[in-house]
Amino acid sequence: MKLPWRRNISRMSGYVPGEQPCEDGFVKLNTNENPYPPSPKVKKAIAGALDASLRLYPSPAAAALRRQASLTYGIDENRIIAGNGSDDLLAMIARAFVGEGGTLACPAPTYTLYDTLVAIQGGKMLRVPYPDDYTLPKALSRNRAPVTIVANPNSPSGTSVPLAQLADLAERIPGLLVIDEAYADFADETALSLARERENVIVLRTFSKSFSLAGMRIGLGFAHPAIIDGLNKVRDSYNLNRLSILAGEAALKDAAWMERNVAMVRKTRERLAASLPEVGFVPFPSQANFILARKSGLDSARPVYEALKERKILVRYFDTPRLSNCLRITVGTDDEVGVLLDAMKRIGRIRKSPNPSVKA
Ligand SMILES: Cc1ncc(COP(=O)(O)O)c(C=O)c1O
User: Model pTM?
Assistant: First the structure.
């Protein structure tokens, strides 16, 4: 039977997330999760809510989480919206601002979910290429699209652009500027001030990375009340469940726990960056909890990705022209990074040996 799909839906392919292996035993450095557990206070908050209250719907606008976010970030509650992960907030933005034939601009390469969300809307992408050093492309400020998104720090490059340049971009473009700060807690700067000051900026945060809560699906958006009001119109009525609201609130109340974990990740990030050249990879400067590293020379990085996978080490490989000689490596614990570097050394030796089919 031929079902009446919208044309753009039949034509598009869905978003492909990084692998989540069913088996245990992988060193998992492919989806930028935090290697450290969330605050024990989160567990306590969730456990305390496993009772008859689960029969009730959650607060539609995640009141307790937004109240705590207001205290933590010093931003009024009417400037905050909560999402089922920041992906949910990105979907709301696409739904509200990108119509059939509408355009979303972004520097590229970047987070590929933006393409998928625009394809669902039947819109078009305006991808402005990053220069080789991943500085903000000048042409981006000349775009006339209703929505521009900059992931800062960017994925998959891990690089970031200065706040002053984002402020300038917000000033120049006619539309909405979305600053996707999924990795901002690992960086030196944040653009939250722009969400307070400007009427055309929304800053997105996630609890999936720095707060070690990818499994709970919690995100926050900060913007002028008029933007928040509009997004609330397209939000699912109960987009966060009762447990996620409590988990997010508890995580924010124990921000010191998150900051300790972030400090450890940043330290390991420096060690990984310093060691990658020894295994034949050149790191891009990272402000995130992962590093994009380019294989010296022009070779594809796929064989290294596959050889690592055989050894139960997962990193992310993108088979696209600009990234095919790179690996994106999540910063794990010091031990995990040690295992990775060791394996990369062995793989490098095999690939150089006259009989590369021999396993080290
Ligand atoms: C740039 C960027 N934005 C948003 C997200 C999604 O985060 P969440 O888990 O909150 O949906 C990711 C996830 O990897 C990301 O890399």
Answer: 0.96
Q: Taking Cα atoms as reference points, which of 74, 83, 86, 71 lies closest to residue 252?
A: 71
- Tens digits of per-residue pLDDT, 36-56? 999 999 999 999 999 999 999
Q: Identify which of 113, 181, 203 to mutate to test ligand 1's pocket (most ligand atoms within 8 A of the CB).
A: 113
Check residue 213 and report its DSSP letter: -
Distance 359 CA to ligand 1 centre (A): 36
d(C-alpha 150, C-alpha 191), whole Å: 11
Q: Is the CB of 111 under 6 A from ligand 1?
A: yes
As annotated, the residues of the chain forming the CATH 3.40.640.10 domain(s) are 40-255
Residue nearest to atom 12 of ligand 1 (CA): 182
Q: Which CATH class is domain 7-36+256-352?
A: alpha beta
For CATH 3.90.1150.10, the residue range(s) in the chain are 7-36+256-352
Supply the CATH classification number for the domain 40-255. Answer: 3.40.640.10
Structural tokens at position 253: 């109340």
87 CB less than 6 Å from ligand 1?
A: yes
